[in-house]
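User: Fold this one for me? It's Uracil-DNA glycosylase-like domain-containing protein.
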Amino acid sequence: MPPLPDQPRAMRDPAVETGRRAALDQPHIAPLTEFVHSLRARDYNEYPFFEPADGGAEASILFVLEKPGPMTVAKGRGFREGSGFISRDNDDSTAEASYRLYREGGVDRRQSVLWNVIPGWNGTIKVTASKLKAGVDDLERLIALLPRLQSIVLVGKRAARAKPRLEGLGRFSIFQSAHPSGQVRAINPHPLG
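Assistant: Here's what I get for Uracil-DNA glycosylase-like domain-containing protein.
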C-alpha cells in the first residue's frame, strides 16, 4: 500500500499521483480497479480509480458521496485536470474537508473506501433520475466486491436517496451524513457536528 499522506491535498504532488497509479494492481485494490475498467468500457463518462492508500476490497466502511467532480478526472481526458482518483487527497476543497473530517473522526483510511452514488463525471454536476438509478445498480455491484463491509455512510442528500435500495442487501449498517462540499459548508459551517 502506498505511504499514507500526513496532510490534505497530497495529490498536488505529481510523485504522489504516480505512486498511486503504480499501486492500482495491489491485491487490496485490484478487484476495484477491474470494476472501474468495466465501467469505463461501457460509456464515455470519466470513472475515477479507487484510492490505493485506502482499504480497497478489505474495507469495512464505504463512504458513498454524490458524484465525482472534475478533480477526479485524469489529466488530458478533456475535462479540468485532476488526479483520476476518488481520493480524500485530491487537490480541491471538498477532498480537503473530507480528509480533515475523517481524520478528526478517527476513521482509519485503511479500513475505509470512497465511492459515489453517481460514479462517473460527465462534465456537469446535474443528477438525473436515470443516472441515479444506474449509479445505485453499480453500487450494488461494488458492495459485492467488499466482503468485510460493516457500514455504509451516505454522504449528502443525493447519496441518501440510495438508502431504500441498499437496505437488505447485506449485513451492514447504513448511516447518513452531510456533504463536505464548500456549498454545504457555506450554508452550515458545522454540517457534521
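One thing worth pointing out: The longest helix spans residues 129-143.
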